[in-house]
Amino acid sequence: MSNLEKTQKGMKVFQILSKIMLVFACVGVALVSIGAVLVAADVLNMKNQFLHFLSVTVEMSKEQIIGILTAAAVSLLFGGILTAFAYRYLWGSCRERKIEACQRVG
Fold it and tell me: pLDDT tens digit string along 42-61?
């Protein structure tokens, strides 16, 4: 197996991993954003057992919970954007190397 083939296999593995991370980031952004909206809209209020537990044990207010959820959503969004760029780079690099290999053979 040549170095080119090893590099191509490594790129494919990283491409698959970046696609998986991108899916997790998108799902995480959706879930955290929905949670922040529900807390902000008082659908999930402090009468909810989980939010009440958080507010009592960690002494968090509703605004702090909304802030934390929003920060998590932004963080996941930026992670997803970086992963999308990495995926596109790996996909383009893999395609470029295949073209170069075909030109050498042909």
Answer: 776 667 676 777 677 777 77
Q: Do residues 46 and 80 make contact, with C-beta atoms less than 8 angstroms apart?
A: no
Residues 28, 76: contact at Cβ < 8 Å?
yes
Q: Could you give the C-alpha distances from 105 to 7, 11, 24, in angstroms and in order? A: 18, 21, 39
What's this model's pTM, rounded to 2 decimal places? Answer: 0.63
Range of the domain at 30: 3-105
In terms of Cβ atoms closer than 10 Å to its own Cβ (0-12, 13-18, 19+), residue 65 is buried
Q: Give percent of the chain with pLDDT exceeding 90.
A: 0
Mean pLDDT of 21-44: 81
Q: CB–CB of 79/18 below 8 Å?
A: no
CA-based nearest residue to 41, from 70, 62, 27: 62
- Give the tokens for residue 26: 């998108």
Q: Nearest to residue 34, comparing CAs of 80, 67, 70?
A: 70
